[in-house]
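Below is just one:
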Amino acid sequence: MKLFFASDLHGCLASTKKAVEAYHASGAQHFILLGDILNHGPRNPVPEAYAPAQVAELLNEYKDDIISVRGNCDSEVDQMLLDFPVLSDFAIVLLESGKRLFLTHGHLYNQDRLPPLKSGDVLAHGHTHLPVAASMGDYTLFNPGSVTLPKGGNVASYGLLEDNKLSVVSFDGDVLSETNI
C-alpha cells in the first residue's frame, strides 16, 4: 500500500493543484490530509491564489481517497464545503505490517505531547510546516512539511509511505528527509 501525505494547504488553489498532481503521479492509493486545509489562519499571510471554495471543490473530487484530520485553522464551516470528514482531531491507520499511523495535525499531539503510541508506531503530523522523517527510538516522527507555506528555509513538500519507507519530497522530486519504519 502506498500513501500520499499533504499538510497545511491553507486554502491555496495553486498549491493544492500541485499536491493533487503529485498524488496522481505517485500512484498512491490514499490521500492523507494532516489539517489546515481551507483557511490561512490569523498568524499566516494570505497565500497567493487563496481560493478556499475552489480548493474544496477540487479536493471533493477525491473524497473516496482522502483520510483527513482537523487542523487548528479548520472549523465546522469548512466541513460544510467538504464532502469528506475533516473534524476529527486524530485518526489511526493500521498498516499491513501491523504498525499504526497516528494521524493528527500537530497542535494537540506532537513529539512534545505524545499520544498513546505503541513501540513501532508512527506519529504523523503537520502544523510546524517543517519536513521530518526520523526514528525517535520507540516511534517514528513524520511531518510532510507544508504544501503552501514552508518554514525554516524549506521548500514546499509532501510525504509518501511506500515499502515501509517514509519520505518527505519536494515538488521538484528531491527527497528532503526519509526513514524506514
Observations:
- The two ends are 14 Å apart (CA to CA).
- The longest strand covers residues 157-162.
- DSSP finds three helices and eleven strands in the chain.
